[in-house]
Amino acid sequence: MIWKDTNQKLGEYFQDGALPAVLSVDRRHYDEKKYKFLMHGHENFCEITYVYQGAGIYRQGMDTCPAAAGDLLLYNAGGLHVTQPLNESGVSYYSIGIANLKKKGMPLNHLYRAQDGCRIPAGRYRQDVENICEEMYRLSEGRQKNRGTELTVQLLGAALIVLLDALAERRQEKEKKGVQGDTRVKDYLDRHYTEDLSLGSVAAGLGYSETHLSHFFKRTYGESPMKYVRNRRLSEAQLLLHSTDLQVSRIAAKVGYENTSYFVTLFSKVVGMTPAKYREYVKKDVHRL
């Protein structure tokens, strides 16, 4: 079916019907055995990641969630983010950089509202999403690039964003029906992660046994509750190193580590460089795609 009112339809999704601009289309395989990918951000564009193989943990600012094959991850402009593999086999994904995105009722270059969540399962549209990403990648890397192929990539990018809205609506409908699992554990850890927590204290606070809590959380989020707390603290430390000039000792205390030496050792082991080196690195390269 051909819509005669295409411009009007576009206006339902994009302010004044203005199409976003696709800046880049990458296909990546991330394996921590090769390198440690740090949190990074882009001030002037947003990003869509589609995981087509493997599994990982997605982190953006205060949000952390598991990501598996078939998931779409949304990154708003200005926020630090990273997708890390869950196991040694790594995680494979398409990454699409988009500028000039003016979704109706949202800030420039924002794909989602915080309350709506940053992960969208493609579900039964998984093959459609994968086909769009693969075609965008193929056209973008081709040696025969011309105005026609570039326009096709832009139109496919707009189509992907429209499809994202439809998928987000489906997810919200499922959540209203109670399909979403128990999030009390993660909510509790997100509220108290800077405190002196143990598996026992968390289990007691929520009325679970330690065994049930540990198995449930790992099955749902791909890591143990205490490892989540550790990574949550270090992610916050990375944000503070990027966005403030606080001394490392102050940052350590703010995220729950009174012993600065222990914090520096732990940060270096997990991130692959000291907090001071990380601050130097991210201040210089935070805008790099």
From TrEMBL:
Residues annotated as transmembrane: none
Domain HTH araC/xylS-type span(s) in chain numbering: 183-281
SUPFAM superfamilies in alphabetical order: Homeodomain-like (SSF46689), Regulatory protein AraC (SSF51215)
Record bears the keyword Hydrolase: no
UniProt keyword annotation of Transcription present: yes
GO molecular function ontology, one term from the record: DNA-binding transcription factor activity
Entries under InterPro entries matching the protein: AraC-bd (IPR003313), Homeodomain-like_sf (IPR009057), HTH-like (IPR037923), HTH_AraC (IPR018060), HTH_AraC-typ_CS (IPR018062), Tscrpt_reg_AraC-type_HTH (IPR020449)
Pfam family, one: AraC_binding
Keywords per UniProt: DNA-binding, Transcription, Transcription regulation
Name of the featured protein: AraC family transcriptional regulator
Organism: Candidatus Blautia merdavium
